[in-house]
């Protein structure tokens, strides 16, 4: 069972990102503030939850969270500042958009850039430990998946509707066949000898 808080008595925001290891598209991050009594029996790390349940959880989180926000950093900025900094920036942007100011941050992972001098705790695999981080993982994942499905309409060759930009076998084969496009992360050195594809089909 997920823990409702790190320490009782102050407003905590859970933060997580989605898309950090992808070959293409933006990185998304979410910040979520929950009431201590918030509960959904299926809430978990988004990677452990099938897509239909993620959609159900997203609707539940958006209805019953005290506050939530989602933000993204695109592939061009990822290439400019690197994916780790881009992940932290996406979290900061999500925190900027929260309508309720937290006192403590619970961050999934082992590193974070401090935000506005707020107390923060980095928790490895925190999305499977704390409800607020799990909720953030669900929002970041579902928002990013939706975004990649829209990009798929522009460049269907890469099957982003299925792989969401991750380096799956079908995605790698499409890069071999067609090269990369404007949404690929060039700093990830996935291009090989292929040229950038700037046309649409």
Describe the structure.
There is one protein chain. The protein is an alpha/beta fold. It has a single domain (12-153), classed as Nucleotidyltransferase, domain 5 (2-Layer Sandwich), CATH 3.30.420. Helices cover 37% and strands 15% of the residues. It has a 5-stranded mixed β-sheet, sandwiched between helices. It is globular. The chain starts with 11 loop residues before the first strand and ends in a 23-residue tail after the last helix. Mean pLDDT is 93; it is low at 193-201.
In short:
With 201 residues, the protein is α/β, with parallel strands linked by helices.
Number of domains: 1
- Which CATH architecture would you pick? 2-Layer Sandwich
Largest sheet: 5 strands, mixed
Distance between the termini: 47 Å
- How are helices and strands ordered from N to C? EEHEHHEEHHH
Strand content: 15-25%
Q: What Rg is obtained from the alpha carbons, in whole angstroms?
A: 17 Å
Main attributes of the structure:
single chain, 201 residues, alpha/beta, Nucleotidyltransferase, domain 5, five-stranded mixed sheet, disordered C terminus
SSE topology:
Layout: E1 12-18, E2 27-33, H1 51-64, E3 67-73, H2 75-81, H3 83-97, E4 104-108, E5 119-123, H4 131-154, H5 160-163, H6 169-178
Helix pairs in contact: 1-4, 2-3
């Amino acid at each position: 069972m997920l823990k409702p808080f790190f320490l009782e008595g102050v407003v905590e925001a859970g933060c997580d990102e989605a898309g950090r290891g992808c070959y293409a598209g933006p990185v998304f991050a979410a910040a979520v503030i929950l009431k201590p009594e918030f509960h959904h029996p299926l809430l978990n790390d988004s990677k452990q939850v099938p897509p239909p349940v993620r959609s159900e959880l997203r609707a539940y989180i958006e209805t019953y969270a005290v506050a939530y926000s989602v933000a993204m950093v695109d592939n061009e900025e990822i290439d400019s500042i690197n994916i780790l900094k881009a992940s932290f920036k996406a979290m900061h942007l999500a925190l900027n958009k929260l309508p309720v100011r937290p006192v403590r941050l619970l961050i999934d992972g082992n590193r974070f850039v401090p935000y506005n001098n707020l107390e923060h705790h980095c928790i490895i695999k925190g999305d499977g430990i704390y409800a607020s981080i799990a909720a953030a993982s669900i929002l970041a994942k579902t928002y990013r998946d939706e975004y990649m499905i829209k990009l798929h309409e522009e460049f269907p060759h890469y099957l982003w509707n299925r792989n969401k930009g991750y380096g799956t076998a079908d995605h790698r084969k499409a890069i071999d066949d067609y090269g990369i496009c404007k949404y690929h992360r060039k700093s990830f050195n996935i291009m090989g000898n292929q040229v950038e594809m700037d046309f649409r089909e």
